[in-house]
């Protein structure tokens, strides 16, 4: 099961997910890139491979990101 790092854009509530820790250059420059909440979690091998292969729809990828966020912290993904 791949271990992932998740970051939520505080302006849009979109979740970024990657298999390495986020570095300073991973966020937009300026004030918009400050203070993104970060969590760590796990995703299934099937989901991870589908994301990497590009075989999942945008809605499917968003669901995976949001589920991983909700399962990796004390509060679920906010539904804007």
Keywords:
80 residues, three-stranded antiparallel sheet, 29% helix, alpha+beta, single chain, 3 strands
How are the SSEs ordered, and which strands pair?
Layout: E1 3-8, E2 15-18, E3 38-42, H1 45-53, H2 58-71
Assign an overall shape.
Answer: globular
> Could you give the distance between the termini?
29 Å
Task: Please give the count of helices.
Answer: 2
What is the H/E order? EEEHH
Decide which structural class fits the backbone: alpha+beta
Number of extended strands: 3
Structure description:
This protein is an alpha+beta fold. Helix content is 29%, strand content 19%. It contains two helices and three strands, in the order βββαα. The protein starts with a strand and ends in a 9-residue tail after the last helix.
In short:
With 80 residues, this protein is an alpha+beta fold.
């Amino acid at each position: 099961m791949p271990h992932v790092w998740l970051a939520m854009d505080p302006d849009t509530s979109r979740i970024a997910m990657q298999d390495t820790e986020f570095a300073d250059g991973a966020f937009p420059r300026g004030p918009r890139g400050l203070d993104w909440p970060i969590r760590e979690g796990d995703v299934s091998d099937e989901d991870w491979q589908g994301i990497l292969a590009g075989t999942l729809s945008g809605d499917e990828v968003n669901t995976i990101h949001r589920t991983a966020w909700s399962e990796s912290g004390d509060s679920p993904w906010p539904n804007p």
